Amino acid sequence: MRRPFVFICLCILNLLIYNASAYNLKQIADKEYMSNSSITSLCQDERGLMWIGTCDGLNIYDGQEIEEFKIRDKEDYLSGNLIDNIVYTGEDIYWIQTYYGLNRLDRRTNAITHYNEFQKLFFMNKDNNGNLFIIQDSNCIYYYHKKEGVFRKINITGIPISDIVDFFIDATNRMWVVMKGYNRCYDIQQEPTSGDITLLPQKTGLIYRTSLIYCFNDAESLYYIDKDYNFYAFHIPTQKNEFIANLEKEIQTRGKVSSIVHYHDSFFVGFLMDGILLLEKQKNTSHYRIQPLPVNSGVFCLKKDRFQDIVWIGTDGQGVYLYSNPLYSIKSVVLGNYTEKIERPVRALLQDDERTFWVGTKGNGILKIYDYEVDKNLSDCRAEVLTTSNSALGSNAVYCFARSHRNLLWIGEEEGLTYYSYREKRIKRLPVRIGNEEFKYIHDIYETADSELWLASVGMGVVRARIAGTPDNPLIVDAQRYIINDGELGSNYFFTIYAENEANLLFGNKGYGVFRFNKTTNGLEPVSTHKYENMTLNNILAISKDSSNNYLFGTSYGLIKYTSETSYQLFNAKNGFLNNTVHAILKNSPDNFWLSTNLGLINFDTKRNVFRSYGFSDGLKVVEFSDGAAFRDPDTGTLFFGGINGFVAIRADGRPEQLYMPPVYFDKLSIFGKQYNLGEFLTRKEETEVLNLQYDQNFFSVSFASVDYLNGNNCTYFYKLKGLSDQWVNNGSESAVSFTNMAPGEYTLLVKYYNSVFDKESDVYSLVIRIGDPWYASWWAYLIYALCLLLLAGLLIRSFILRSKRKKQELLNEIEKRHQKNVFESKLRFFTNIAHEFCTPLTLIYGPCGRILSSKGLSKFVADYVQMIQTNAERLNNLIHELIEFRRIETGNREVRVESLNVSSIMKGIAKTFVEMAKSRNITFLSKIPEQVMWNSDKGFLNTIIINLISNAFKYTPEGQGIKIELDTTEENVLILRVANEGSSIKEKDFQYIFNRYAILDNFENQDERNFSRNGLGLAISYNMAKLLNGTLKVENTSDGWVMFTLTLPMMELTTGMQEIKQATAAVSYTHLRAHET
Predict the structure, then answer these.
(1) DSSP strand pairing (111-115 vs 736-739)
(2) To bridge 625 with a disulfide, which of 405, 596, 952, 1055 should be the other Cys (CB 3.0-4.6 Å)?
């Protein structure tokens, strides 16, 4: 998609010729901006959009953009690239004929249906009801049955396909089949209910004696050429047959005729291989003047616009041309390729009484064109270039020309004043001296009738001088200079002189506004002391005045319409001007003015304050203009403006333009920057179109257009979004609006435009935009929410009931637990107290048994029983000590005393005590204890843990099985002791009870003689001791059937004062030993 000004830029390169074509024929697009530059068919729909078929694809033009037709995200496409014909049947349905088949395009969804039974070339047209008809074979006509979606065949005799030269339906809905030697006409009858169509033959008043070779038509006329090359127009309503012209010479020269279009009193005749002719009827005669149009290629098709006074021309290789005949024709003259090469900007223009056209440039001197006429090409005119090298010019920078009452032409240039002598046919210098300084940089000149000469200089102020001498040889006398701000540098830049009359002169200054010459004070005084909002409004480049005595000041910031000090209006880009800078102003009529800018021309009506712009898109090849480079020919009224690459000529030689205010239609949709087909999102709500978007599509833009091929650049769009704002927003010339983060809901987008050419505002057009709720706010979501709330309420009630029950149960369990704990504590205290009481009797039993066994002469019987008594007393004593130790740990009366220990020695010593037991029970007892393993720990705790773990292993290891103990120091700062035994593994459910003190006490109470030694109290003591040593004690069943206990101990810091503790412990032990001995 490219805007027209882009391809016009490139067209300058392609069309840089001496004399560009007039405004009323402009090139719309060529191969750089369409899929192909060979235009095979043209079709205009009800919106005014022009569908352009080419040899390679389909394009759409809306007056602003050319878009190649493509279907987004679909593989299905047209049956061929060469578009032979396009027919629009209404309701967004387009029929596209290619060599390989017929395609039905539904523009609302871009769905394409292929009808491959219609291939190669055939005739196709539609009636007034949107029914499509096709002639592909002899003696039959096909029509598309809308209700059934298929083609039906109607058999008709007398229409051989090879003889048909035209096929169409006229304004009265009558079908015409025109053949070389005769014609057929049918009334189209359609049954309303079924949609079936029948054709009823009718007589026609068209009779031709000579067979036809070409025939074309519009809704009310036929235009045919017979084999004698006579061109006729047959008017169907009046049955009048009019001879137009004989085209034998033209057809034999140019070849086959491709199309004929009637345009007012003229005819366009396109030739397949060689251009186009305009047959223009002469006033008050029946004769037509034949003239070619400057289209240097074959013409494949012509199309009369349905809504505007335009003819479309489809060419072979040069794209599309648009022909119109407006009130003003504008001719661009590009000087870039002229024989005497002119590359510098045009700064001065004038046509003298000898019809010599003077073109002053800034750097290339003067281009002098003899006998110049606007309709002539420069290549047909005699011309010469005058420079400093071949004339008396002081500089090649020429800024102004001025007529004189003498036989000369005044020339203002960079180095001063010169003039052209018509008698001597040469340029002569005429220095103007102010004191010892020559007056230079002359940008404007005005001569009064009483031989007074005014000069405006950009840098040196204003000079008034008297002209003396002869009419052919003037002299400057009494030169007086006028300056402002005491001659301050930068203050005396005067660009223009405007004479209301010879006694009232205005001078335009850059930076300080407009000045008037005051004869009384003999000086310059400001016209206005008003302080404008923008300082560049004081840069006055042009001055004029309308019939209501309003001054027009062209400035660097727009046009000022000045009435008085307190009453003025400003027009610039904010009001729709092409550009802010106004370089020159020319009066076309008392209240109609033309302005030149940096981006084109503006035709301004001061009565209505309306204007029309002309730029690149209007066919201008010169759009950037120069300060003061303007001239109005008083003889013809032709206006000339000079620019950086040539000049333009404006003439009011066309037809007044008819009011046309096209409707606004919405055509494009972009969501998050991605283009979509708008029709796919539209539905109808009564008579209103509704744009339906999802919640996550709320960043979007909508494009709209009013298709106006003549005044489209002179429209200002306004919009407002009802439901969000009630203010109209000025969108300028932009035909798209964007919306971001729109909340769900229904809005109405209202669009209108203002046409500055007709000073008229359009109707308001609307599009309803409905943004759906997010899924979580839809009706089904609310239904789910309601069900979820009901479910949640049920769950909360159930949860409350269960929680109440659970709390009640937890309270009961807590009470039970506290009771059980109290019971356990009571039991534990009881057992501990009993154990203390047992200590003394056991000592008294153990001591005598030792003495008896140590006496001599005991019988074996007595010794065995005494030994049994001593062994069981020792076991009972150990059990009591374990119980006492367990109690001390539980009550926290046993503190950890960390000292450096030789763990290897301790383990080996303990293991040695179990060797005899292992032998007696045939148990394999293996140990893996490294030497000299030193560790910081509590000796008592460590001894107790090791003894209990090994004892536990012996308890549960059957005879003939094995036990393994291992000391591991491979992990850093961790000591690992493993004790494993074979035998029956521990059940999964019993793991939780192994180290449980309450379960142990229960077991202690319930144990009998068979499991007396399996109380497990030692494991509970060991588990708690491991915790006090910051370690862990774990048990597991290995995969090979062993039960393994793993003790993990970290390195601990030594307890302070351990030496004193050891000494005290030794003393206590000694005392205790002596007590036992006694």
Answers:
(1) unpaired
(2) 596
- Please state, in angstroms and rounded to a whole number, the distance separating the CA atoms of residues 231 and 243: 6
Quick one: which of 545, 572, 568 has its CA closest to 558? Answer: 572
Tens digit of pLDDT for each residue in 480-533? Answer: 999 999 888 789 999 999 999 888 999 999 999 999 999 999 999 999 877 777
Q: What pLDDT, on a 0 to 100 scale, did the predictor assign at position 869?
A: 82
- Burial group, residue 128, by CB count within 10 angstroms (0-12, 13-18, 19+): middle
Residue type, 397: A
User: Rounded to 5 degrees, what angle do the CA atoms 270, 273, 274 make?
Assistant: 65
Q: Which of 546, 548, 479, 540 is nearest to 515 (CA)?
A: 540
The DSSP secondary-structure symbol of 211 reads -
Q: Using CA atoms in the order 252, 254, 255, 261, what is the torsion angle rounded to 10 degrees?
A: -110
Dist. CA 945–CA 301, nearest whole Å: 110
Residue 1077 main-chain phi, psi, to 5 deg: -65, -30
φ/ψ of residue 268, rounded to 5:
-100, 130
Nearest Cα to 395, choosing from 347, 434, 436, 353?
347
User: pLDDT band at residue 998, thresholds of 50, 70 and 90?
Assistant: low
Give the per-residue pLDDT at 411. 97
Is residue 876 within 8 Å of residue 839, measured between CB atoms?
Answer: no
- Who contacts 254 (Cβ-Cβ below 8 Å, separation ≥6)? 271, 273, 274, 275, 277
- Which residues make beta-bridge pairs with 736? 703
- The neighbour count for residue 145, using CB atoms within 10 Å, is 16
Whether pLDDT at 1074 is above 50: no
**Whose CA is closest to 50, among 319, 328, 326?**
319
Per-residue pLDDT tens digits for 945-985? 898 899 888 888 998 899 999 998 888 889 999 999 998 78
DSSP annotation of 985 reads P
Q: What residue spans of 892-1029 are helical by DSSP H?
A: 903-913, 915-920, 939-955, 997-1006, 1017-1028
Encode burial over 898-937: b for 16+ CB neighbours within 10 A, e otherwise: bbebebbebbeebbeebeeebeeeebebebebeeebebbb
Q: Is the pLDDT of residue 9 over 60?
A: no
* Ramachandran angles phi, psi of 535, nearest 5°: -60, -30
Q: What is the DSSP letter of 21?
A: P
Question: Rounded distance, CA 828 to CA 997, Å?
Answer: 10
Question: Residue 1076 is inside which H or E element, if any?
Answer: helix 1058-1077
Give the count of beta carbons closer than 10 Å to the beta carbon of residue 496.
26
Residue 23 pLDDT > 50, yes or no? no
Asked if residue 363 has pLDDT above 90, the reply is yes
Closest listed residue to residue 21, CA positions, set 285, 268, 323? 323
Residue 228's CB is within 10 A of a number of other CB atoms, namely 12
Per-residue H/E/C for 823-889:
HHHHHHHHHHHHHHHHHHHHHHHHHHHHHHHHCCCCCHHHHHHHHHHHHHHHHHHHHHHHHHHHHHH
- Does the pLDDT at position 841 exceed 90? no
Decide if pLDDT at 332 tops 50.
Answer: yes
Q: Is the pLDDT of residue 699 over 60?
A: yes
Is the model's pTM score more than 0.85?
A: no
| Rounded distance between C-alpha atoms, residue 282 and residue 298, angstroms | 27
CA distances from 554 to 345, 458, 594 (A): 20, 16, 11
CB 979 within 8 A of CB 909: no
Whether 141 contacts 125, CB under 8 Å: no
Q: Report how far Cα 275 is from the mean position of its chain's Cα atoms.
A: 42
- Decide: helix, strand or coil at residue 789: helix
CA distance 29 to 395: 42
Q: What are the start-end ranges of the E strands in 387-441?
A: 398-403, 408-413, 416-421, 426-429, 433-434, 437-438
